[in-house]
C-alpha cells in the first residue's frame, strides 16, 4: 500500500507551544543548512540515498506547478555531523529544468547542494515553511528507512522552501532528526 502524504499544514512559523526552543533556529534560519551544520561539527558529510526521476508527492507537485503523476528529478540525502545523520533532505526539480538537473545530479555527487545554491548570488530563496510530519506522511517513512535500524520518534519537524534561478524552481525539504539537538543551537 502506498502511503499517501498526509494533507499536512505547512506553517510560516513554528508554533511556540509545539516546538522545542532549541529546534526553532534550525527551522527558521534562512541561510544554508549545510553551513549551519558545518559550523557546529568537525566533519560534515552527505550520503546520497537517491538521485532519479520520480513522481513527487501531490503537495510537492502543486508547489512546483507540475501535474499529478508528472515525473521530476529527485535527490534524497542524509546530512551527517561527525558521522551521525542529523537531517534527511529531499530536493525536487521539474524535469524540463535540464540545466538545473545537471547541477543537481551530474555535477554534485556527495557535495552538498547548498554549496552550489548559496554560491550563486542569482539564486533566490522563497520563505521557509515548516510542518510536523508523522507516520501518515510518506516522507516520514523515507526518513525512517534512511536511518534504520535507528528508531525515530512518532513525529519529526521539517522545513521546506523553493529556490528560484532565472525562472527555474527547485523545492528543498529538510526533515530534522532528533540528533540535530545534540549540536550546539
Ligand atoms: C539547500 C541546502 O543544501 C542542503 C544539502 C542538500 C543535498 O546535498 O542534497 C539538500 C538540502 C540541504 O539540506 C543547504 O545547505 O541549505
Automatic annotation (TrEMBL):
It comes from Aromatoleum bremense. Pathway: Cofactor biosynthesis; ubiquinone biosynthesis. Keywords: Cytoplasm, Lyase, Pyruvate, Ubiquinone biosynthesis. Its EC number is 4.1.3.40. The keyword Cytoplasm applies. It holds the Pfam family Chor_lyase. It catalyses: chorismate = 4-hydroxybenzoate + pyruvate. It is found in: Cytoplasm. Coiled coil: none annotated. This is Probable chorismate pyruvate-lyase. It is an enzyme of class 4 (lyase). One of its GO terms (molecular function) is lyase activity. The keyword Lyase applies. InterPro entries: Chorismate--pyruvate_lyase, Chorismate_lyase_/UTRA_dom_sf. Substrate binds at residues 75, 113, 174. Belongs to the UbiC family. Removes the pyruvyl group from chorismate, with concomitant aromatization of the ring, to provide 4-hydroxybenzoate (4HB) for the ubiquinone pathway.
Amino acid at each position: 500500500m502506498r502511503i499517501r502524504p498526509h494533507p499536512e499544514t505547512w506553517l510560516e512559523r513554528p508554533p511556540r507551544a509545539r516546538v522545542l526552543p532549541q529546534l526553532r533556529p534550525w527551522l527558521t534560519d534562512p541561510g544554508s543548512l549545510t553551513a549551519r551544520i558545518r559550523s557546529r561539527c568537525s566533519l560534515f558529510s552527505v550520503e546520497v540515498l537517491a538521485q532519479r526521476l520520480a513522481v513527487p508527492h501531490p503537495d510537492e507537485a502543486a508547489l512546483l506547478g507540475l501535474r499529478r503523476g508528472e515525473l521530476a528529478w529527485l535527490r534524497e540525502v542524509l546530512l551527517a555531523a561527525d558521522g551521525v545523520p542529523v537531517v534527511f533532505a529531499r530536493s525536487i526539480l521539474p524535469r524540463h529544468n535540464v540545466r538545473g538537473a545537471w547541477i543537481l545530479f551530474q555535477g554534485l555527487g556527495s557535495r552538498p547542494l547548498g554549496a552550489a545554491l548559496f554560491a550563486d548570488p542569482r539564486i533566490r530563496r522563497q520563505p521557509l515553511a515548516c510542518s510536523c510530519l508523522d507516520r501518515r506522511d510518506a516522507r516520514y517513512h523515507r526518513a525512517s528507512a534512511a536511518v534504520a535500524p535507528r528508531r525515530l520518534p512518532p513525529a519529526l519537524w521539517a522545513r521546506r522552501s523553493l529556490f528560484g534561478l532565472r525562472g527555474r524552481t527547485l523545492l528543498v525539504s529538510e526533515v530534522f532528526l532528533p540528533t540535530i539537538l545534540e549540536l550546539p543551537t
